[in-house]
Amino acid sequence: EEKDTMLKQMEKEREERESLAMQLKEQKVALEAEREKLEEEMNKLRSEKERIEEEQRRGLQEIKIREEQTKEEMRKKEEENKEKQELILKRIEEEKERASMTAEDVQKKES
Hints:
Elements: H1 2-100, H2 103-110
């Protein structure tokens, strides 16, 4: 009877060990699946981050290009305005000179 009880006890312990081993195996499989899922999510997030950073780089590059174009346009307009002002000032000086000339001076200059 003692032997029978001991055998039953040993069988019960073996079943408990097998049950625990099975639970551990299931937990390990579940944890591996969760790890893979998290890894996949991390890869998606990395890709999204890289895409966003690339868009930002392109956006900044476009802004820099537009700024340079605007600066160049402003420089050209300033140059054109300066040339126009110089021409206007030259004409004013010519008109002043012509107004101060006598009729005889005008004939000499025209010939």
